[in-house]
Amino acid sequence: MSLFYSHLVEFDEVIVSLSDLKLSESQKNHLSQLYDSQLHLSVLDLVLSQLSKEDAQDFLDKLKKNAQDKKLLDFLSNKVEDIEDQIKLAGIKLRTELMQDIKKARNNG
Amino acid sequence: MLFQSKNPQYEYLRKRWLGKHQNLSLEMAQKHGDLVRRVGLGSLGGLMLLTTPGMSLTQAHSTQGTQSITSLEDRGKFVANALNKYLPDEVRPLTSSEETQIAQVLNENFNLKTSPSLEGVRLKRSYGLIGGEQHLYRYPGDTLFKHAESASDWAMYGGSGIAPGLGAWGYFAPSEAAFSKEDGEKERWYIAVQTFLAPGFAENVSQYRDFFKYRKMLVVNPKTGQAVVTDIADAGPSEWTGKHLGGSPEVMQFLGLASGPRKGAVLYFFIDDPKNQVPLGPINALNPNQRQIKI
Q1: ipTM score here?
Q2: Could you give the C-alpha distances from B41 to B31, B49, B70, in angstroms and in order?
Q3: B16 and A53: CB-CB below 8 Å?
Q4: Contact B9 A106 (CB under 8 A)
Q5: Hey, of B5, B20, B254, which one would you mutate to test binding to chain A, going by the most A CBs within 10 A of its CB?
Q6: Which residue of B has its CA nearest to A23?
Q7: What is the tens place of the pLDDT at every residue in B63-116?
Q8: Are B156 and A32 in contact (CB < 8 Å)?
Q9: Is B180 helix (H, G, I), strand (E, B) or coil?
């Protein structure tokens, strides 16, 4: 599923690394969902922390209606400086953390 | 006895990532819980369910009402029971009267206008075996990887691969720059049907080709009531396969036919949608108390 920030976040490295582990399809699915979910929580936290209460409420209303709507990003860009770069950075930070976990998991196996 | 995975790599990551996920959820609840509740979602959990990838957005569309049949599974069963009254035991072409009765069940339960024929055109059958298809190239230079929009998307659908040839109508867009969200949805929810077996096809090739191009069809798994609004983007499968239509990896997933042999019996009826108002993708049956006939 495409979300309003999906195009800003690269997940190739995590996917390729998960594919290299000895995982069943359902295990790979589960871990991928956990990755997406953590990313989603990180992005929401980042966004909500920088909006005024009124804007945050407005944003959540819009998100509730359609989480895929790219106009959400336009809305945020008008309210928060460099929000696209911040989301990109949040994605990179999470990816770096999870890649370290995958590396450790590989050594465990 | 507990059934435990003995895969140490998986167990390690599962514990680590579940822990991180819980911490993030807790942090969100502490920092923004009030706000989320005020928006009317009831709880932070509600927001997560609505907006977390992997959680079906379609579930959210059907959470209104507190009538007796509320769970999606129960609604699916309700549809399946209603269909079973008219479906034959074997997977064969339906009679005209069976098609009429089944179309009525579908219209009532999904609030759509469906029929086995539209504008005088019909397929050879409306009840047949669907098989899993691969992804299709959407524009020149497209790759399988570009089809995935999230990690779970890739994990779920990436393994299906991409067909070596183009769909029956070529690329969905002439270039990546011209590729739109709507084009993406057309590929995501596509089916391949045996257009070449449609009565009258040989005499009206060009007219039929235009009619079938991205034509919407409701595909329903009659065993479970799971349903998807799809569009025709390819012709096939060949008769010798024993299958009568094919579904994209996503279509098969939401019909409940993505595992095992990736094959099963489905109903497929045209949707009359001249104003293009019916969105492609999974559709839930209405709560029985909300049903209305739209004919």
Answers
A1: 0.92
A2: 16, 10, 18
A3: no
A4: yes
A5: B20
A6: B10
A7: 333 334 456 678 899 999 999 999 999 999 999 999 999 999 999 999 999 999
A8: yes
A9: coil
CB contact under 8 A, B155 and A41: no
Tell me the pairing of strands B190-193 and B245-247: antiparallel
* CB neighbour burial string for B195-221, b if at least 16 within 10 angstroms, e if fewer: beebeebeeeeeebeebbebbbbbbbb
Nearest to A105 among B9, B32, B156 (CB): B9
Closest chain A residue to the Cα of B188, Cα to Cα: A1
B45 CA: distance to closest CA in chain A (Å):
11
**B5/chain A closest Cα distance in angstroms:** 10
Looking at residue B225, the DSSP 8-state letter turns out to be: -
Read off the pLDDT of residues B153-178 as tens digits, 9 standing for 90 and up.
888 888 888 999 999 999 999 999 99
Peptide bond into B237 cis (omega under 30): yes
**C-beta separation of B111 from B274 below 8 A:** no
Query: Locate tokens 């502490």: which residue?
Result: B30
pTM of the model: 0.75
Instruction: Phi first, then psi: give them for residue B197, nearest 5 degrees.
Output: -100, 0
In tens digits, what is the pLDDT along chain B, a chain of 295 residues? 445 567 899 999 999 999 999 898 888 888 988 887 766 554 555 455 445 444 433 333 333 333 344 566 788 999 999 999 999 999 999 999 999 999 999 999 999 999 999 999 999 999 999 999 999 999 999 988 888 888 888 888 888 889 999 999 999 999 999 999 899 999 999 999 999 999 999 999 999 999 999 999 999 999 999 999 999 999 999 999 999 999 999 999 999 999 888 899 999 999 999 999 999 999 999 876 665 544 4
Give the chain B residue nearest A53 (alpha carbons).
B35
A–B: how many Cβ contacts below 8 A? 157
- The Cβ of residue B98 has, within 10 Å, a number of other Cβ atoms equal to 17
**By C-alpha distance, which of B135, B153, B148, B184 is closest to B54?**
B153
Q: Which residues of A touch B12 (CB under 8 A)?
A: 101, 104-105, 108
Facing residue for A64 by CB, picked from B9, B50, B151: B50
